[in-house]
Amino acid sequence: MDSQDGLGRIGSNPLARYAPRGNGGESMSRSDSSHQAQELSAASRNALVSCMGARAGESVLVVTDAGCLQVGEALFCAAAEMGCEPMLLQMEVADVSGAEPPAAVAAAMGAARITLCPTSRSITHTAARREACAAGGRVGTMPGITPDCMIRCLAADYDKIAEVTRRVTALLTAGEVARITCPHGSDLTLPIHGVEGIASTGLLREPGQGGNLPSGEGYLMPVESTSEGVLFVDGSMADLGVLEGDPLRIEIRRGVATQLVGPGASRLAQALDAHGPRARNVAELGVGTNPRARITGMVLEDEKVAGTVHVALGNNVGMGGSVDVPIHIDGVLRRPTLTIDGQVVVDAGRLVA
Description:
Blueprint: H1 3-10, H2 30-51, E1 59-64, H3 69-81, E2 85-90, H4 103-111, E3 114-117, H5 127-134, E4 138-141, H6 147-153, H7 158-174, E5 177-181, E6 187-191, E7 198-200, E8 210-212, E9 217-220, E10 228-233, E11 236-237, E12 241-242, E13 248-253, E14 256-261, H8 265-273, E15 282-288, H9 299-302, E16 309-314, E17 328-333, E18 337-340, E19 343-347, E20 350-351
Parallel strand pairs: 1-2, 1-3, 3-4, 4-8
Antiparallel strand pairs: 5-6, 5-18, 6-10, 7-9, 9-15, 10-13, 11-12, 11-17, 13-14, 15-16, 16-17, 18-19, 19-20
Helix pairs in contact: 2-3, 2-6, 4-5
């Protein structure tokens, strides 16, 4: 839809519909609701200006679904108020993270200068996102984002986050072997020699750049078919949420998750195995660098928490790999220790690099 149609269909100010709930489901007071709406609007503007480098007259496509519509509408309104040419496109909620969006959505992404994707499932590791960047667009993906996360994390100082993230990423790029341990018994070795790290700084101001918002992580693809050991995920897992009680145990042999035991294991195995054995590929090693992020069960934010480490299974094409499956699922560790060639980068959940 064009910007006039969008404004006409959802009203002159879609944020007027934003009515957060308090604890226990009771409605918030009108003043609290208005305050949060103002904070959401400010965070949306910061995302557009500070992170995306949006300018008046640029086309801004917001791709969203029912689960993230409040954030989508806030971004649409902020873009309109800035004098951009905003479009709001709502699609059905995808089945899993990593699934391709409909062809019409992909085509719209390829035509926009800026695309922001507050969606319930991640489209970060999709051909649609890669092709939109290849066409010169700037793409910010925001899987599972909530108004609270938006307000908390998009008000961060992304220039400072970028400085730390680039430092961590340089260590990953220069490294030969990474090792993860944790109090639960994790001991996973991940060869990373010859692989270039990726700095997800949240600064997506140049043509062709893409990444998560909110952001703050350095990550890379471990060398395929080489990771060995066991991983205890005790923070959260994409599409499972916060892991309460016992951690999820993942045994990894030759770069493949061979055994899953613990909360959500059968559900996770079913989601992975629906896409064949390659979906169990160890796809990513990442380090969180955002001091404002918190573990909430939404992996978009969880994997950015400063001092956490995450490991993902599934698609690694966007990082230079060969495993092209329509699923990418991250698991976050709360208090890991990460070493690269013996140098401590994260010490029991504290970023020291």
